[in-house]
Amino acid sequence: MTLALQTTGLGVRLRRAWALRDCSLAIPAGRVAALVGPNGAGKSTLLHAIVGLLAPTRGTISVAGEAAFMAQDKPLYEGFTVAETLAFGRRLNPGWDGPYAIGRLERLGIPLDRKVGRLSGGQQAQVALTVALAKRPDLIALDEPLANLDPLARHDVMRALMVEVAEQRTTVLISSHVVADLEDTCDWLVVLNGGTVQVSGDIDDLLAGHQVLSGPAEAAGGVTSRTAVVEEVRTGTRVRLLVRGAPVTDPRWSARPVSLEELVMAYLRNPQCAALPRLAEVSA
Ligand SMILES: Nc1ncnc2c1ncn2[C@@H]1O[C@H](COP(=O)(O)OP(=O)(O)OP(=O)(O)O)[C@@H](O)[C@H]1O
C-alpha cells in the first residue's frame, strides 16, 4: 500500500509550549481523512507542518508528491477579483491548471470578474478550494473549510470536493470540529487531542472494532478484564461501556454498534485511551 503521508515522532514547539508532541501517523494514498479534535488540539499546527508552513521541532514528515493547503478563516484576498485570484495562483504554482480552474468556477456559476469580498461565504470557500485543486496536488490539506458555512453550503462544498478528488485520486486531510460534516465522505479518521494523535485508522475498521455494551454494573469487571474499555458510564445498577475488542458472549450484556460521533467523543473524553495501528500495519 502506498502512503500519501507519514509523520514519525513529530513534535512542534510554538514559543515555549509544545503544540504537537510525538505524533506518528500514516495515511494511505487516495484516502479522505478526517482530522478532528477540540479547540487547541493542534489540528492547524499539524496541517501547517504537513504542507511545509511550519518546520518540525522534532521528528520527520514525509509527503508523497505535492501538497496543497486551504487555510482556515479567510484564505483569499477580498480586494482581488476571482480572475485576479486565479492569476495569482498561476504565478505562484508551476503545475497550475488554469483551464480546470476557470471551468470549475464557471460550472459553479461564480463570476470571474466579481471581487472575492462580494461573494457569499460558500462561493468564497469554492474559490479557495478551486485554487488548492488547480495546483493538481497529490495531497490536499484543508483547515476547517466548512466553518462559517450554512448547512446547505457545507454539503455542497463537501460533495464538490469528493467528486474532484475521486476523479484525480487525490489524498485529502480535512479538519473540522463537526464529525457529522465528515461522516458521509471520509474513510479515514485521525483524532488529535492535546497535541498527540489519539486515534488513527480506517473508519469502517474502527466502527467494526468497537461496540457499546449495556449490562449490570456488578458484572462490569468480567468485561473490563477481557476487552479495552474506552468509556464507562454508570447509572444506578446499570453500566454502559464503549469497548474495543472481542465480542462479549455473556447473555447479561446487550451490545450495539457504535456511531462515529460516539466513538470520537468517547476517546476525546478519555485521553488516556488510544486506538493506533502500528505504522507497519498501515503500510503493509
Ligand atoms: N503562533 C502561536 N504561538 C504560540 N502558540 C500557538 C500559536 N498558534 C497556536 N498555538 C498554540 O498551539 C496549540 C495548538 O493550536 P492549533 O491552532 O494548532 O489548534 P487547533 O486544533 O487547530 O485549534 P482550533 O480548533 O481552535 O483551530 C494551542 O495550545 C495554541 O494555543
From TrEMBL:
Keywords (A to Z) from UniProt: ATP-binding, Nucleotide-binding, Transport
SUPFAM superfamilies from the UniProt entry: P-loop containing nucleoside triphosphate hydrolases
Superkingdom of the source species: Bacteria
Gene3D superfamilies, per the entry: P-loop containing nucleotide triphosphate hydrolases (3.40.50.300)
Molecular functions (GO terms): ATP binding
Domain annotation ABC transporter: ranges: 5-219
PROSITE patterns: ABC_TRANSPORTER_2
Ranges that cross the membrane: none
Pfam families documented for this protein: ABC_tran
Name this protein carries in UniProt: ABC transporter ATP-binding protein
Protein species of origin: Sphaerisporangium dianthi
